[in-house]
Amino acid sequence: MKTKEKNILKRVTGIGGIFFKSKDPKSLKEWYNEHLGIPSEKYGWSFHWLDENEKDEKGYTVWSPFPKDSNYFQPTEKEFMVNFRVDDLYALLEELKKEGVRVIDETEESEFGKFGWIIDPDGTKIELWEPPKPGKKPKK
Hints:
The chain is an alpha/beta fold. It is built from three helices and seven strands; from the N terminus they run H-E-H-E-E-E-H-E-E-E. The protein has a single domain (about 15-130), classed as Roll (2,3-Dihydroxybiphenyl 1,2-Dioxygenase, domain 1), CATH 3.10.180.10.
């Protein structure tokens, strides 16, 4: 078990976001603001924190309701998706393919970082996110 724990910690460095579908994201964001004090922007809210190993590196975890009819979680029909932070997206996706994990053959790069997706055994789409390195611009 210890080997697996080491392996998981080496691959995933944290939770980048929690995404879920809502029949009325705008009203839901207002409810969370009023009752739980979570302000919201276009995509939800980012909770900021400092990395315990890299004290100068700021990170964030996103909370984001999506419209009920969003296609972002496809090819699954699940109502939620978790985004995990990773250190090296492309290397991890290659390793997961070798291990027989269902990897979606599509990646994205933007000013927000690199994104890739896998499907877990329960059929849930999981987003893997390599945040941009400070001072680096993404490839276009």
